[in-house]
Amino acid sequence: MAKYNETDNSTINLISNGTDITGDVKSTGDVRIDGSLTGNLNTKGKVVIGPTGKVNGEINCKNCEISGAIEGRVIVGQLLNLKASSKILGDIVTSKLSIEPGAIFSGTCKMSENSNNGGSSAVTEKETERSGK
Asked: What domain count does the chain have?
């Protein structure tokens, strides 16, 4: 009997550079954005926003790595990694947060011990603005 895998990591959905999408995106697999998304993104997998990637909307995922720009709320169940080239204007809810020097984050951050795909059982809340200049 086949096992049901909640997250299909063998599938990577790619929005490439030069592609602009308006509307909501839902997926069970990983998503990489090097283009532009105006709308919400909801996946049970990992989200990667490349250096040329831009999102204007809410992201809800298991893990997230950001090198591009986001304007909106980011909800991550496990690890959110902000690379040096990232720019976040909005609120973050995550279990674990990694910010490289040079990353720009302006908004609120709610940390929770055990998020359920980005659940908001916040333990601490910090108003933060970080600029690595």
From this structure: 1
51 φ/ψ angles, rounded to the nearest 5 degrees: -60, -30
Residue 41 and residue 31 in contact, taking contact as beta carbons nearer than 8 Å: yes
Would residue 86 count as lying in a domain? yes
Rounded CA-CA distance 32/12 in Å is 7
Q: And the tokens for 35?
A: 């283009």
Our CA angle for 21, 26, 27, nearest 5°, is: 115
Whether 5 maps to a domain, the answer reads no
Domain membership of residue 30 as a residue range: 11-127
Q: Give the strand order in the sheet containing 96-99.
A: 8-15, 29-33, 46-49, 63-66, 79-82, 96-99
pLDDT digits (tens), the chain, 133 positions:
444 445 445 678 999 999 999 999 999 999 999 999 999 999 999 999 999 999 999 999 999 999 999 999 999 999 999 999 999 999 999 999 999 999 999 999 999 875 554 443 333 344 344 444 4
Is there a domain that residue 1 lies in? no
Q: Is residue 40 part of a domain?
A: yes
